[in-house]
Structures are given as structure tokens and as C-alpha cells.
Amino acid sequence: MKDIHQETEFFSNDTAITGQGLINSNVATPIREDAFAVSNEEKKSRIAVLFKEIMEVIGLDLSDDSLRGTPQRVAKMYIEEIFSGLDPANKPASTLFLNTYSYNQMLIEKNITLYSYCEHHFVPIMGKVHVAYISSGKVIGLSKLNRIVQYFGRRPQVQERLTNQIGAELSSVLETDDIAVIIEAKHLCVCSRGVADDASSTTTVYYGGRLSAADKIAELHNYLFR
Ligand SMILES: [Zn+2]
């Protein structure tokens, strides 16, 4: 199951996604074919060398105690933490359970903390994710919903793609089109630079299957935003 998901996400332009949030069927992060040809250790040492050069080019003195370890720290953070969601090996395994409770209404997990990174500026995107699904007969551990959000957040992203990737993954894992994803986020590239608007935020949505019906969207919004 896991391998199939990986292949779908990274290499197929024709994923069987039916969510209404999708303008086209390709939700994959653009990634090189040789992305995993070198080890994480090699990636970290290369990033450290390159980031040291950026620091030197902008004029920092790397012999300073406070700065000396920064290239290695950044390299470790990129590979092991904030961009670890690029590596399919880090995709959370999602164990399904049978829905033995006869619960057939929507389940909502709201206010999932999101940290991601704008792929245009490499600065944080911070926000909340709300996800909902109607069980197809299978249910998933609640914390797995958070882990799926975290996994796709830990990549250079645009919020639209992130929304669709989470929707597509939930659809695949839960074996249903009845999925909703709402992301409300602030982009530091908007807040702290450029137009420097700290008050604005960005909302994106994915509504699939029965959760794309107007009454279901209204019901969902009532739980989330009343
Ligand atoms: Zn940006």
C-alpha cells in the first residue's frame, strides 16, 4: 500500500483524484528523479558547504563563535526536520480500523498546527488545518490525521498544492472521496517582507465527494467557524 502511494504521489500525472478542489490531476511536488540517489548524510554535508558560502557572500564572519556552527545546523534542520516530508520514507504509515461504531456522519479534526515553507522564498507558512471525512467503512487513528498534515507541510510548498496533497492522501488512505481540507495560514513572505501585511491570511479548501455538497459544506463551516 505504502509503495503504491509513493508512486502515485511522485511520478504519476494521472492520479485518480476526484476532489472538487483539484483543477488538474497532478498534485505532486516537482521533484528530481535522482532526489534520493544520495544519502541524507551526503545531502547534509553538501548543504552545509553551500549554506556557508551564502553566509560568507552576504558578508558574515564564520570565525565568530555564534555563526560557526550555523551551516551544519541548517543542513541538519533541512534534511531531518523542515524538509523531511520530501522523502517518501518519512510518510506516516496509516493503519485503518473497521468502523464498528455505526458512525456515518462527518468526523472533523480541527486546528491541526501547520508549519510549512514557502517554496518561493523559503520562509515559514504557519497556520491551522481542519480536515473532515465521512467513513467508507474504515477509520483512521486521529493522530494520523495530524501526522499526514505534518508530513506534507515539511516540504517547500505553495498552500494550494499542500491543500490538494493532504486531500488526495486522505482520500487514498481512507478509501473515500468524502474528504474536506481547509487551511488558514499566514505566509511570512507576505507578513514580514514585500508588501509587509501582517494582518492578512490565506484560506484554501478541498471539498470532495459528499463533502462538496452545499449543505455539507455549510454544516462543516458551522462546526468550524460558528
Ligand atoms: Zn513566499
Brief digest:
The protein is of the alpha+beta class. The chain has two domains: 42 residues, GTP Cyclohydrolase I, Chain A, domain 1; 132 residues, GTP cyclohydrolase I, C-terminal domain/NADPH-dependent 7-cyano-7-deazaguanine reductase, N-terminal domain (GTP Cyclohydrolase I, domain 2, 2-Layer Sandwich), CATH 3.30.1130.10.
Describe this structure in words.
- InterPro entries: GTP-CH-I_C/QueF, GTP-CH-I_N, GTP_CycHdrlase_I, GTP_CycHdrlase_I_CS, GTP_CycHdrlase_I_dom.
- The protein has 226 residues and is α+β, with helices and mostly antiparallel strands.
- Residues 1-24 have low confidence and may be disordered.
- It has helices at 2-11, 40-57, 65-68, 70-82, 142-153, 159-174, 188-191, 214-225, and strands at 96-98, 106-118, 124-134, 138-140, 156-157, 179-187, 202-207.
- The protein folds into 2 domains: 40-81, Orthogonal Bundle (GTP Cyclohydrolase I, Chain A, domain 1); 94-225, GTP Cyclohydrolase I, domain 2.
- It has a 5-stranded mixed beta sheet with strand order 5-2-3-6-7. A two-stranded antiparallel ribbon has the order 1-4.
- Helix 2 (40-57) packs across helix 4 (70-82) and helix 5 (142-153) runs antiparallel to helix 6 (159-174).
- The structure holds zinc ion (ZN).
